[in-house]
Amino acid sequence: MARPRTIDDDQILDAARAVFLADGRGAPTSAVAQRAGVSEGTIFKRFGSKDGLFFAAMAVPDPTEVVALARRPVAVGQERARFEALGLALVGFFRDVLPRMMCSRLHPHFSPELMLQGETPPPAQVIGALTELVERCVATGSMRTDSPEVVARALVGTMHNYVFLEWMRVPQLPGQVGPDTADFVRRFVTMLWDGAGAPGTAAREAP
Amino acid sequence: MARPRTIDDDQILDAARAVFLADGRGAPTSAVAQRAGVSEGTIFKRFGSKDGLFFAAMAVPDPTEVVALARRPVAVGQERARFEALGLALVGFFRDVLPRMMCSRLHPHFSPELMLQGETPPPAQVIGALTELVERCVATGSMRTDSPEVVARALVGTMHNYVFLEWMRVPQLPGQVGPDTADFVRRFVTMLWDGAGAPGTAAREAP
Amino acid sequence: MARPRTIDDDQILDAARAVFLADGRGAPTSAVAQRAGVSEGTIFKRFGSKDGLFFAAMAVPDPTEVVALARRPVAVGQERARFEALGLALVGFFRDVLPRMMCSRLHPHFSPELMLQGETPPPAQVIGALTELVERCVATGSMRTDSPEVVARALVGTMHNYVFLEWMRVPQLPGQVGPDTADFVRRFVTMLWDGAGAPGTAAREAP
Amino acid sequence: MARPRTIDDDQILDAARAVFLADGRGAPTSAVAQRAGVSEGTIFKRFGSKDGLFFAAMAVPDPTEVVALARRPVAVGQERARFEALGLALVGFFRDVLPRMMCSRLHPHFSPELMLQGETPPPAQVIGALTELVERCVATGSMRTDSPEVVARALVGTMHNYVFLEWMRVPQLPGQVGPDTADFVRRFVTMLWDGAGAPGTAAREAP
DNA sequence: TATGAATGAGGGTTCATTCAT
DNA sequence: GATGAATGAACCCTCATTCAT
C-alpha cells in the first residue's frame, strides 16, 4: 500500500471553506494550501481544479438533524415545543449552510445539480420533512390547515431570513428582536399557532 | 466649453449589474465596458476602481413601493388584502434586490455601511414599515399579537425564502407550491391570519 | 489678433520641471496641467507631445553667470578670489542644472543634440571659459600649469561632485566638510593653488 | 523534494540592469524577463514588485577595489603613482556605478537608505578611504595639506565629472582631453601635487 | 506521493493623445 | 484658443496549473 495521507481531504475542505467564505471565492489556492498545511500541488492532485475544490468545500451537508427532529413522533401536547425546537435547529442549520449556498450559487459555473449530494437537495429535504410533520399533526388533530407546505415554508423562511439579516450585518434593525434567538422563535411559533388575525376576521370569508 | 458627457452613469451601472449578476463579480471590467458601449478608461474615470463600480452597481434601492404600501391607511375589512398585496410587492422587491445583497455581501471588501444609502438600511426600512402597519391594525382591533415585529418578519422572511429558492433553482421542491406566486401568498396570509394551531391548543397556555 | 494667452509657456515649463523632478519623468501630464493651471489639451497644443514638453522643461540654460565671471578681467592679486567666486557660482549652477541633465539623459529618447540650445553645449561653455581664464592667468604669470583645461575640469568636477553628493542625500559623509559650502570652496582653491605635494616631491621628476 | 531553482537571481538582475540603463526605468518588466530568459511571474515571485527588482538591480556595489588600493601601504616615492592608479580605478568604478546611482535617485520611491548595503554608503567609503590615505601621506611627510578630505574630494570629483561628461555624450568638449584617460589622470595628479598657483602667490597669505 | 518552482494568460489600472464643443 | 470627456494601448501583477525532483 502507498504511504497514507497525513492530511485528509476533510482538513483541506475545512480550510478551503474558511478561506473562501472569509475572502471570497477569488482567494488564491495558495491561501487554502497554506491554511491547510499542504502544498498547492497536493490540492490539485486531490481535487483536480480550483472549481473542484470550491464546489466540494461549498457542498451543502444533508440536514440530518432537522429532518430527524421533524420525523420523530410527537407526543400529544408537545407539538408547539417541537416546532420551537425545529426553529432553533433551522437557525443553526442555516448559519452553517446559507453562506455556502449563496457563495456557490454566485459562482459562474454553478449548476443546480451540484446541490444534489444524495437524491434530494437539502432545502427540499427540509421542506419535505416539515410538511410531512404538519400533515401528521393535522391528521392527529393538533393542527389545522389547508396548506401544510405553506406552514413549513413560513417556518423555514422566517428562520432563513433571521439568519440572513444576521449574516448581512444589517445595522439598525428595529425593535426588540435580535439578540435572543430562542425568544424570537417562541414568539414566531405562537403566531404560527394562533394566527395574528382578530377573532371574527377569519380569512375564510375574505376574497 | 469642453466636450459634454455623452454616457450616462446609469447606463454603465445597468450594464455592470447585468454582467456581475450573470457572471459573478469576477467578470472582467472589459465585459462591462463592452456591454455598456464605453471604453474601460471611462469606467475607471467615473468609478475609480472596479470595486467602486461593483458596489455602485450593487447598491440596494430604497424599498419605496413596499414602504408606501405599508404606510397607506387600511380600510376596515381590507387588511388581509393589504397583506397579500404586500407579499406580492415583497416578492418583486426581493427578486430585484436579493441577488445584489448576496453578491455584495460576499465581496471581501463589503462593509455594512455600504448599504446605508439614506439613513436606514433597506431591510430595516421594510421591517419597520411593516411593523408599524401591524401595530396600527392591532390598535384598530383588526389584528391581535404581542409581537408585531415578529409578524412583520414572518411575512418578510417567507417571501424572502420564496424568492431565494427560486433563485437557487432548487430542483424537486415538493408540492404544489412554486409556479403560482399569488396563490402562495394568499395561502400564507390565510395562515398568518388564522393560525395553524387547532382550536384548544392555544399557545397562551404553553411555556 | 487672437485672444492672448493668459498662461505663457514658461509657467507651464516651470510646472513641468517641478513635477518631473519631484515625481520622475513618469509623472502624468495631467499632474503638470493641474500644477500649471491649464488643461491637458493646452499642453499638447503647445508642446506637441509629452516628450516635447519634457525636453523643453529639462533644457539646460546657458551658464551665463559663470561664463561672465570667468571672462571678466582679473586684477592682479585677485586671482584666487576669482576662483573662489567661480566655485560658488558653479555650485549654484549645478544645483539648478544637474538634476535636469541627469533626468533628460536617462530618457530613452535622449540625444546629445538636445543640449545644444545655442552652438555650444553648456558644460563645454563652462569648461571652455574656465580654461581660457587659466590660460590668461598663466600668461600674466599668476598661474603656472601645462594643462589649463585640467585645472578647469578639476574645479568643475569638484563642485559638480559636491552638488551631486548633496543631491544624492548620501548619509554619513565623513569629516567636517558639508554644511559650509564657502569653506569647502576656499579650501579647495587653496589646494588647487599650492598643491598637496610636499616640497621636494615635485611631479616633474616622477614617471 | 520540490523542483530546485533553475534560474539565478543574478542572471535576472544583470538583465534588469542592462534593460533599465538602456531604456530607462520605464522599460516593461516583460523586456527584462525576455532578456533574462524567464517568465514575468518568476521575476515577481523573486522580487515582489517592479520597484523591488529595480532597486535590487541598481544597488551600488561596495567599492572594494578602490578602497583596497587606498588602504595598501605606499612605498616612499610611489605616492603619485598610487594616486594615478586610484584615479584610474575611480574612473572604472564610476563608469559602472554612476548610471545606477542617478537612475535610482531619480526614481520617485528612492530613499537614501537604499544605498546602505553595508554600514557605510559607497561614496562615503570611497571618500573616507582616500582621506585616510592623504592623512597617512601627510604623516609620512610626502604630502602637506590642512584639508585631507578636500584633497580626496577633488580627486573623486574630478574623476566623477570626467565619467559624467563621457556618459552625457557632451559634444564639442574643448581641448585635447577626452580620449586618453590615463593622460588626463596623470595631468590631474601633477596639478594636485604641485598646485597651479605661481610661486609667490601662495594661498596662505590670501583672505 | 508531496513539493514548490516556473509558467503565461488574463485582468485592473494608468495615461498619452484626440476631438467635439 | 481652451477645455476635459473619451479612448485604447500597454503595463504591472496575480494566480491557476503544470511538472521536474
What CATH architecture of the largest domain in chain A do you see? Orthogonal Bundle
The largest interface is: A-B, 81 and 80 residues
Largest sheet of chain A: none
Count of alpha/pi helices of chain A:
9
Q: Strand-residue fraction of chain A?
A: under 5%
Assembly type of the chains comes to homotetramer
Average pLDDT metric of chain A: 89
The ordered string of helix (H) and strand (E) elements of chain A is: HHHHHHHHH
Total of domains of chain A: 2
Give the % helix of chain A.
55-70%
End-to-end C-alpha gap of chain A: 72 Å
The first-level CATH class name of the largest domain in chain A: Mainly Alpha
Low-confidence stretches of chain A: 203-207
Description:
The structure is a homotetramer of 207-residue chains. Chain A is an all-alpha fold and 207 residues long. Chain A has 2 domains: 48 residues, Homeodomain-like (Arc Repressor Mutant, subunit A, Orthogonal Bundle); 133 residues, Orthogonal Bundle (Tetracycline Repressor, domain 2). The first copy, chain A, is built from 9 helices and no strands. The longest helix of chain A has 27 residues. Chain A is elongated and about 70 Å long. The C terminus of chain A is likely disordered. Chains in contact: A-B, C-D. At the A-B interface, helix 6, helix 7, helix 8 and helix 9 of A face helix 6, helix 7, helix 8 and helix 9 of B. Chain B binds a DNA duplex (21 and 21 nucleotides) through helix 3.
